[in-house]
């Protein structure tokens, strides 16, 4: 299986061959996998790698994947699951600001209620349900 080093090399920018419809993250005792590629250092850089992947798609295609699928093996304890979910949340928070800055020239927190509602409707990936993505 290929691995991804941080800074990310093969999934973003020029390496991105097609628009992603879904992002898949798997975590097992052997490591963390993004789109089937192992992340070096387990999940330590998941937030940065995921952020880079999604920002690259936004910049290249002006769109985001429809879904984010997160899978844990049964061996991953709740603390490990929470740490991975926190990394994903960090990446999505930065992506919300990136999209908001692009669309409204202001960070997500500074946008109005109508703009926030529009972003939620158009880009549900930016607003995952905490429990299961």
What does this structure look like?
The protein is an alpha/beta fold. It has one domain (3-121). It has helices at 46-61, 78-104, 113-122; strands at 3-4, 22-28, 31-34, 37-39, 67-72. Helix 1 (46-61) packs parallel to helix 2 (78-104). The longest helix has 27 residues, at 78-104. It is globular. The model is unreliable at 1-10 (pLDDT under 50).
Index terms:
single chain, 133 residues, alpha/beta, 40% helix
Helix content: 25-40%
Domains (count): 1
User: What is the H/E order?
Assistant: EEEEHEHH
Mean pLDDT level = 84
Rg for CA atoms: 15 Å
Q: How far from one another are the termini?
A: 25 Å
- Read across the widest sheet, the strand sequence of neighbours is 1-4-3-2-5
- Report the uncertain regions: 1-10
Strand content: 15-25%
- Tell me the major beta sheet: 5 strands, mixed
SS summary, helix count? 3
Query: Which structural class do you get from the secondary structure elements?
Result: alpha/beta
What form results from the Cα inertia axes? Answer: globular
Total count of strands: 5
Question: Would you kindly provide a brief summary of this structure?
Answer:
This protein has 133 residues and is α/β, with parallel strands linked by helices. The protein is 40% helix and 17% strand.
Strand-helix topology:
Layout: E1 3-4, E2 22-28, E3 31-34, E4 37-39, H1 46-61, E5 67-72, H2 78-104, H3 113-122
Parallel strand pairs: 1-4, 2-5
Antiparallel strand pairs: 2-3, 3-4
């Amino acid at each position: 299986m290929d691995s991804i080093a941080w800074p990310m090399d093969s999934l973003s920018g020029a390496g991105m061959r097609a628009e992603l419809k879904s992002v898949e993250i798997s975590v097992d005792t052997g490591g963390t996998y993004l789109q089937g590629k192992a992340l070096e250092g387990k999940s330590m850089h998941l937030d940065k790698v995921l952020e880079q992947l999604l920002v690259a798609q936004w910049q290249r295609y002006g769109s985001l994947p429809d879904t984010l699928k997160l899978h844990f093996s049964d061996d991953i304890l709740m603390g490990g699951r929470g740490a991975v979910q926190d990394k994903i949340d960090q990446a999505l928070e930065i992506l919300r600001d990136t999209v908001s800055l692009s669309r409204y020239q202001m960070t997500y927190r500074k946008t109005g209620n109508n703009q926030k509602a529009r972003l939620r409707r158009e880009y549900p990936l930016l607003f995952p349900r905490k429990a299961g993505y």
